[in-house]
Design goal:
The chain contains twelve helices and 13 strands. It is an alpha/beta fold.
């Protein structure tokens, strides 16, 4: 089977670099286009990221293009992973979707457009059924799918089997979020050294609202938000490199026993795992019996960073249950989650129109694609 050619937009940022790394030797997708800001256009990928880390060998000699270069290519990748800033994504994600590209975006810009699925593949894969309606409503030749905020994976995934079985009512959570969630600039910031910052701009609003769309339903006017669940969040930045931790208390319509909660986690086998998608961890939820787990340093890389770790399950004196959950923010929460979404799109036939050949990217020593 020929691999589908794909491109990464914003390939020199933290999420973009992780996306490039995960595409190495991928069985379904082949990286054939990388784009970045104008000051990096024409550079080799290795040169452009040299101050931020090492480039994977397979991509190190590829040349970087400007975003508009893609529109002028005769043979081009039709599937794009967008790791652009919100400002750039507002223009280019939409433009590429309208021009016939399939776009999986990590930007927050599109998450509350009712016609754009906000996808966690293990939770709301059925929202992809919205894509034909999206094309008609927007007049696009292609489509756009958004990835949720990186924090959500830690608590939405373990809450999903409980919501299915016992119907969620209220959730109270506190997140301890890694520095990498703020990008490269935060990694060298002295503000986080021996410190906890109890505020992350717009993070609590995203954490409280985005799950309501994920748990919503598809209607004639797009996705209708879930109205019966209330969430309250405290979000904190902590001096940890990778891994977002969430301390969760939850109440349900029907109060579960702790054994029923464990059973729901242990038997949770959603669609990506049923389909055996390449990036789907199996199991997706790892439950720890130890009293001091999960921990970012020990558990964030389970199943290549795609699994969610859960522990400290106990009764809650205010709500029904409480637990601690952990996910890798750069992998499951960003690039890996986007890759799993694309694998699901391919399996469900949404990428059948995608060409399986493309122009090779210029390597070092070749001329880069010329721009007007």
């Amino acid at each position: 089977m020929k691999r589908i050619p794909v491109g990464v937009l914003g390939a020199t940022g933290m999420a973009g670099m992780e996306m490039v790394r995960l595409l190495s030797d991928h069985p379904l997708f082949e990286l054939t286009f990388v784009a970045a800001s104008l000051n990096n256009v024409g550079k080799s990928y290795r040169e452009a990221v040299s101050e931020r880390g090492s480039a994977p060998y397979f991509a190190s000699a590829l040349r970087l293009f400007a975003l508009e270069d893609l529109l002028g290519m005769q043979k081009r990748p039709k599937l794009l992973f967008s790791a652009l800033s919100n400002e750039a994504a507002a223009e280019w994600d939409v433009r590429f979707a309208s021009e016939g590209f399939s776009v999986v975006s990590m930007a927050s810009q599109h998450r509350f457009d009712p016609f754009v699925p906000l996808l966690i593949p293990e939770v709301n894969a059925c929202h992809l059924d919205l894509l034909p309606l999206q094309k008609r409503a927007k007049g696009w030749k292609g489509f756009l799918v958004a990835k949720p905020n990186c924090t959500l994976q830690s608590f939405v995934i373990p809450l999903e089997p409980l919501h299915r079985a016992f119907k969620l009512k209220r959730v109270l959570l506190t997140t301890l979020q890694a520095v990498s969630g703020a990008g490269f600039s935060a990694l060298s910031s002295l503000d986080i050294t021996e410190n906890v910052i109890p505020y992350i701009s717009s993070e609590e609003e995203k954490t409280e609202k985005e799950p309501l769309k994920i748990w919503g339903s598809v209607g004639k006017e797009g996705i209708v938000l879930e109205k019966e669940i209330l969430l309250s969040a405290h979000c904190n930045r902590v001096p940890v490199a990778d891994g977002h931790l969430a301390c969760v208390s939850a109440e349900f319509e029907k109060r579960p026993t702790l054994n029923q909660v464990k059973e729901a986690w242990e038997t949770f086998h959603p669609l990506p795992q049923q389909l055996k998608l390449p990036s789907a961890p199996n199991p997706v939820i790892h439950y720890f019996l130890e009293k001091d787990r999960p921990q970012p340093k020990l558990d964030r890389d389970l199943s290549g960073g795609m699994a969610v770790s859960v522990g400290r399950l106990r009764s809650c004196p205010l709500l029904h249950i409480r637990f601690v959950a952990l996910s890798h923010n750069r992998v499951r929460g960003a690039a890996g989650g986007s890759l799993l979404t694309a694998e699901l799109l391919q399996k469900k036939g949404f990428l059948d129109h995608v060409e399986t050949q493309s122009d090779p990217l210029p390597l070092e020593g070749r001329l880069s694609f010329s721009r007007d």
